[in-house]
Structure formats: C-alpha cells, structure tokens
Amino acid sequence: METIEEKARTRFLRAMARVKNHMYPYMPRHVAEVERWALYLLEKNPKADRTIVLTSVWLHDIGWKFNRTDIDHAILSEKEARKFLHTTGVSENVIESVAHCVRAHRCRDIQPQTIEAKIVAAADSATHFTDINYIIHLSDGIKEYARGKLRRDYKDVGLFPELQKELTPVYEAWKKLIEAYPELPKRGDRTELTPYKFWRIVEDIMTEGDELCSRLMPGETRKLGYVAIFSKSETEEKALFEVAGTLGTLIHETPTGKVYRMSGKAARVSFVKVRYYNPQKPQRGAPDYLVPDYEAFKKKYHNDTHFTLIKRPAYELLKLSDEQGGAVAYFPSAPLEIVLGIKEG
C-alpha cells in the first residue's frame, strides 16, 4: 500500500505531466532535489515528523500545475494540497500541518512556524544552491533576478544556522559566478516582461526592504506606502510602463517616473512608481514606508549613519541604506497620496 508521501509524489508528477508548454519544465527535477535536502535535514532533526515533511515536499509546488503567473503558487499549492489530502483519509491535524508547510515554504507573507515547515522551506532554498535554478535565470538573461534570488535563498537557509554555515562557501561561489556570467542577448519570449515577472520584481523589492529594516531598525512599526521600481535600461523602462499600464491606472507623472494605482486580485501593493532609467541607481528599486509618528522617528534616527535626511519643497524623507550600498528604503513625512495630491480611487 502506498504511503501518503508516495501518493503525494504520484499526484505531483502526474499533475506536472499533464501541463503543456510549462514555464518551468524542470519542476519534477527540482522537487526531487528538495526531497534530498529534506531527508538530509530530517537526519539532523529527528523530532520532526517525516511523513509531514515528505508529503509537503511533493505538494509544495503542485500549484504550478495551473501554469499561472497572476497568483502566488504557494496559495494555489495549499488549496491543491488540501483538496488532495481530503481524499486520502488522513486526519485534520495532518492536513493542517501539511497545508502550513506548503503555504509557508516561500517565507514571504506567511512564515514557517513548525520544525516541519522550516525544513521544507530551507530544503527548497538549499536546492537552488545545488541544482540549475540560478543557471536557468542567468541563461535567460535576467541576472538581476538571479542576484535577488540568491540573497533570499541564503536568508531562508538561515532557518537552520548550521545549514547556512555549511552553504556559505557555495553562496560566495555563486555570487562570483553570477557577477562573472556574460551578459548575453536575452532569449525572446522567455524573458518578456509578464505581469507575473512584474510582481516578482515588486515582491523582491519589498523583501529586500523588509530585510534591511529588520536588520538596521528591528522592532520599529512601519506600513508599506508604495514601491518604486528602478528601470535598469531604456528597453526595460518601456516594458515596465507597458505592463504597469495593464495592471493599473497611470495617475501621476513626476520628473523621475510614472505612478500607477494598481488593481486586481494579483496586486501586491496599492501604488507602484516606475522610475525612468538612471544608471546612477544600481538598486532594483525601493519601498516607501510610513511610520506612526514621523517626527519622533526622525528624532530617533536622523543621526544614525545608515539614515540620510532628504529635503523636498513640500515634504521630507529619511533614506535608509546599508554599508554595501545595496538595498534602500525611504520614510517620507507624508503619504504618497498627500504629496502628489492623489484623490481616492
């Protein structure tokens, strides 16, 4: 008789086999590699429930069966996992445990809370260090995305500090390889800017901003105001404007870019600003955060070396940056709607 994890494996492989023209045809290979890392982590964490972990491994990416880019695949995978598990006769506790592992495996809006969920998330990220994921992105000509994914994966394997330590030499090697990888012409449709890729850029900027704030101003209350994307070329600038226009409405133009009010279920944030190409802006973008009491916040941080006070005619803002000149985040004295005189939608 098949175990529940074996049934999950069969379900996943059959689901992937039915998808035509899948955007990630290497998915079965990826999940098999996740299983290898999960088994490795299970050996080091014997108190974890092996059945929960391995079942979750084979279901965590099953949402890709829909080949959709407008909804986070972790959300789709959780729904599919629940649907499948309800047909197997397992207990509600097992269903809830697996559902959490699946939903939290990206360490984004939902963080892994159980040892099993942490193993699945860390195994998923560790896989990228030992398989073809970064090479595929580099080969597709999206080096910036590969850089961001490497940083996120290194952070997520930190769920197990000993694993992160073990993978640090591999992480450093990948950093060098990514930078050394030649800038080849992009491959037609595979690198076309889609709505999904647009939102992935936004999510990457949000993640980097959150990591920066958590590291340099831990515990501070903040609310995301909007996200600015820094165009990396004139060609990308045009593509970003086009996609942003399909996902939202252009509501304001400034000397540095265009502001869109985003709409639809896939929207990750209410406003996105696409900045004109500026080679002096090396970052992928920057989030703007609002704080409950700007004056108190400024008093606390304006002498901090990580913060820079910027004066504008109608408002001011504090810029937060790290020592490496990588991620940045802004804290304006007033919301975007007030600064630009934007009416409620």
- Mean pLDDT, to the nearest integer, reads 89
What oligomeric state best describes the polypeptide chains here?
single chain
Write out the CATH superfamily name of the largest domain: Hypothetical protein af1432
Q: Which strand-content bin applies to the residues?
A: 5-15%
Query: What portion of residues is helical?
Result: 40-55%
- Return the string of H and E elements: HHHHHHHHHHEHEEEEHEEEH
Question: Might you state the CATH topology name of the largest domain?
Answer: Hypothetical protein af1432
- Name of the top-level CATH class of the largest domain: Mainly Alpha
Question: Gyration radius, to the nearest Å?
Answer: 21 Å
Q: Helix/strand-derived class?
A: alpha+beta
**How do the strands of the widest beta sheet line up side by side?**
2-3-4-1-5
Write up what this structure looks like:
This protein is of the alpha+beta class and 345 residues long. The chain has two domains: 4-187, Hypothetical protein af1432, CATH 1.10.3210.10; 193-340, Roll (2,3-Dihydroxybiphenyl 1,2-Dioxygenase, domain 1), CATH 3.10.180.10. The protein has 13 helices and eight strands. The protein has helices at 4-17, 27-44, 50-59, 73-85, 92-104, 115-130, 133-139, 143-157, 161-180, 195-216, 234-247, 294-301, 336-340, and strands at residues 223-230, 248-254, 257-262, 271-275, 285-290, 307-311, 316-321, 328-332. Strands 2-3-4-1-5 form a five-stranded mixed sheet, covered by helices on one side. A hairpin with an 8-residue loop joins β3 (257-262) and β4. α2 packs antiparallel against α3, α4 packs antiparallel against α5 and α8 packs antiparallel against α9 (161-180). The longest helix is centred in the middle third of the chain and has 22 residues, at 195-216. The chain is globular. The N and C termini lie far apart (57 Å). The model has no long low-confidence stretch (mean pLDDT 89).
